[in-house]
Specification:
The chain is α/β, with parallel strands linked by helices and about 300 residues long. The strands form two sheets. Strands 7-6-5-8-9 form a five-stranded parallel β-sheet. α1 packs across α11, α3 packs across α4 and α5 crosses α11. The longest helix is centred in the last third of the chain and has 24 residues.
Length: about 300
């Protein structure tokens, strides 16, 4: 079995295409496992994993926890309010306390950009970035592109539009890196106020008309409007956003072709996407959730293999 070229999963930016292929191959194997009557394997019986969430998360945390338990790892869960972890020092103190319990892998979500990188330089454990501020969310991009590959046979040559709040989204940036690494074409679509200035420098097209974006793409990955990250108003009203950039059955009927619909969740139904689209045959949103566990099992397993050596 080949090995990952990285010692931590800090961002897609640091991966090679061969790493992604290895993660996908490993995930295929684990996907078979989680569809068996007995869903556990003893692979990580001697590995301890700490989930450190300094920011609220339900889906990602549950997905990681399930992946860890399916691999028979020992799991420690730690949630901290953002206020107690304002300084880098307190982050290291918190982590060192947990590492004194002999933890091998740390899965961390943190509101500060680069928190995982900072940690990887100071702590003797494998670090998996479960989201750092508005920067990266690598396992989400891996499960998203894995889901595209599963549905369409390949990511290479596909046209993918990421719709919505690009500015505040770590999912968008990780997806852009992962899609380009695997040979897809990427555009973003949303209000100009929610599209970062640097986006074109990443080789990404910008489209402000949702209908044109959908006519162009094979896959639409629809992002949630992240109101909790907004300190000013970026568009007049939710209703107006929904009329201009929301994806409904009516909009898709006008485009008149099959498009794969994705959403990292949680969904604001009726805002960025209507229920009849989210629950339609075009949607692979539930596949993404299932694939999230297999992908996270693969990443944890491959990093744990490096520890065992």
């Amino acid at each position: 079995m080949s090995n990952l070229s990285v010692e931590h999963l800090l961002g897609i930016k640091y991966l090679k295409n061969s790493d992604i292929e290895l993660i996908f191959e490993t995930a295929n194997h684990f996907k078979e496992v989680i569809n068996r009557p007995i869903k556990k394997v003893p692979s990580l019986r001697d590995i301890t994993i700490a989930n450190l969430f300094f920011e609220n998360s339900t889906r990602t945390k549950l997905s990681f926890e399930l992946a860890e338990k399916r691999l028979s790892a020992d799991v420690i869960n730690f949630s901290a309010s953002q206020s107690s972890v304002k300084k880098g020092e307190t982050l290291i103190d918190t982590v060192n306390n947990i590492l004194s319990m002999k933890v091998d892998i740390v899965v961390m979500r943190h509101p500060n950009v680069g928190a995982g990188i900072f940690l990887s330089k100071h702590v003797d454990a494998k670090i998996i970035n479960a989201g750092d501020g508005t920067h990266e969310h690598p396992t989400q991009a891996l499960l998203d592109t894995y889901s595209i590959k599963e549905k369409l046979g390949s990511v290479k040559g596909k046209k993918v539009v990421i719709v919505g709040d690009i500015l505040h989204s770590r999912v968008a940036l990780s997806n852009i890196y992962a899609l380009q690494l695997q040979g897809a074409e990427v555009k973003v679509c949303g209000p100009t106020t929610l599209i970062p200035k640097y986006i074109k420098s990443l080789g990404v097209g910008v489209e402000t008309n949702i209908k044109k974006a959908l006519e162009w793409c094979d896959v639409a990955n629809v992002l949630r409007v992240q109101n909790e990250r907004m300190d000013v108003k970026y568009f007049p009203t939710t209703r107006e956003y929904s009329q201009l950039f929301g994806i409904s059955k009516q909009v898709l009927d006008q485009v008149g072709k099959d498009i794969v619909i994705m959403h990292p969740g949680p969904i604001n139904r009726g805002v960025e996407i209507t229920s009849d689209v989210a629950d339609s045959d075009s949607s692979i949103i539930l596949n993404q959730v299932e694939n999230g566990v297999a992908i996270r099992m693969a990443v944890i397993y491959l990093l744990a293999e490096q520890i065992k050596r």
